[in-house]
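In this supplementary section we document a worked example of the pipeline. Step one takes a protein sequence of length 380 as its only input; no multiple sequence alignment statistics are reported here. Step two produces a three-dimensional model, which step three serialises into structure tokens for compact storage. The input and output of this example are shown verbatim.
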Amino acid sequence: MKKIYLLFSLVLTYSFSFSQTFSFTYKGQVRSYIVHLPTGYVQGEELPLVLNFHGYTSNAGQQESLSGFDAVADTAHFIVVYPEGISKAWNAGIGFNGTIDDVGFASALIDTLHKNYNIDLNRVYSTGFSNGGFMSHRLACQLSNRIAAIGAVSGTIGTAAGLYKCIPTRKMPVLHIHGTSDAVVSYTGASFGTSVDSTIKFWTKHNGCPQTPVITELPNTNTGDGTTVTKYYYGLCGDSTEVILLKITGGSHSWPGTTLVPGANMDIKASGEIWNFFKKHHLPNPINAIEDNQNDVLTEPIHIQLNPFSEKISLYINSSEINEIRIYDILGNSVFETKDKTNFSSSSLFEINSSHLKNGVYLLKVKNGANYAAYKIIKL
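The serialised model returned by step three reads:
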């Protein structure tokens, strides 16, 4: 348990700064995470959220220490959460924990944090180191309707299960930091992950970015670390997104700015660079829901376990008021609808057989009378 600091104001509101470990059960497994609330936090205020994923064989507490993100959160006033992977790993498309639904866990974690801390759902970000960097790229691929931007350190796009073919549902701001001498996750790629160049090319193409970057050599403020930093800026891209590569020439498998790993680049502090990138971006529309001019929109009635999907669509029902679910193709034809109009039970899993659907983009509508929420979903 982390130490807790409580400051009480004279007007009977509470101001906090602390880190604490919590857990909940997801798909039969207890999943834990560390929450750090920034200095001066007032209960109920709406703040951005940064999810910070640890590397393989590491854990949430070590990632908290390695990244030093708590200090950035205290200064910039946002909430940072360190999730814990099953068996100290993430199912990020690189061969670890292949049966664990970590994308669904991340989505459920966002819901839990929103309920407990009133986080700003339009400003939820993902970062991580190594396996956690791969996890951030996977969330950008498969949870882009909930993640506003990612910042990955020493982890690219995993190639297992065809994840390199991912099709995000929107354009995604991406910051990637990687050392050219990384002996664990090679800069030039490996069987389990794409190269840095291929990763950047994927996101710049997806976002519709200029293919010629603006290149800047950053000041070599620490000549003793044997490394230098070059910034490759691709932007602005579609929907005001951008892609940035911070290339650490001579850099090892480490988190820049940390003193806990020998040989880390000390010209930049990765956590500060990542937050400065994050704070420029937010989701373009209210989370998940697409507003209709005539009808009210349901708030967070479901979350989609995996999007893009393949043989089935798995929906986690958050509201007992839902009484109809429909799916339409891009021409507006109905391809699925629930036959009965009885209410769905809250906190339940509802699965739709989608094996008959062709690959492509669909619209999922969840209704309660005249109220609805709409989601863009993709079958691969």
